[in-house]
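FAQ: What does a multi-protein file look like?

Like this. Sequence, then tokens, then the next protein.
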Amino acid sequence: MSSVIIVILVTLGTLFVLLSAIGLVRMPDTYMRISVNTKAATLGVGLILVGTAVFFNDLSTTSRALVIILFVFLTAPVSAHLIGRASYFMGVKLWKGSVMDDLRGKYQKNSHVLKSEIDDTPRNNVDHSRSEDDIVK
């Protein structure tokens, strides 16, 4: 019975890691790649580690797997957020099909201040609008 559970957990984990890799290649911009990679890979690694803990059925291995899962679940979203935020502040363009830019007009590139409301000095703000040269026809 435990071998069936192990096979299911590791197979699901492997499928989520595979979906993460496919999403990394298929998504159109940096922000979507970060999102899909963080979510799918975190879940995939977690499932594989749970399968490892069930396979070894040992307190030492199980506790190590649980600590690794906790570490990955705590650090992956934070690091993805920081990478996405740094990308936005560096001026990485959004996908042309993006519907909303929540930070438009709120980040000043000179002072690196992020405000909660739209700033009235647009010359200091990061501009993610697409020019005609950026659009591939």
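And here is the next protein:
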Amino acid sequence: MARHIEKRSSKCQSLESPIKFLIEEASRCIQCNEPNCISGCPYGVSIPAMLSFASTGDLERAMSLLSDPRLLDLSRSCLTERPCEKSCTLAKKGKPIPIHQIELSLLMEDKKV
């Protein structure tokens, strides 16, 4: 059981990630012509647009794309399978964009405001 919690914690990382990390990771998005991350997202988030806004520091506009109320349940959000990250084109190269962590960081920033 402890190993499972430790594994989940390392995947989830800190919910209070620095904005710099959020922007750097969002900047890695290659803005695919046919983004698989959108079809992989169970909430239908326009992930490339969200990452584009986040990469320029426009966190308010990035947050506006996270309108599905199911995304606001932070108590269970680290437990999801992250299908959008599995669908990310960069996952084929071994390092997908940490979409889930970026979404969590945006939601936490929104709660601070």
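Q: Is there any per-entry metadata?
A: Some entries carry free-text notes. For the entry above: The helical segments are 2-12, 19-27, 36-40, 47-55, 59-64, 74-77, 83-87, 99-112.
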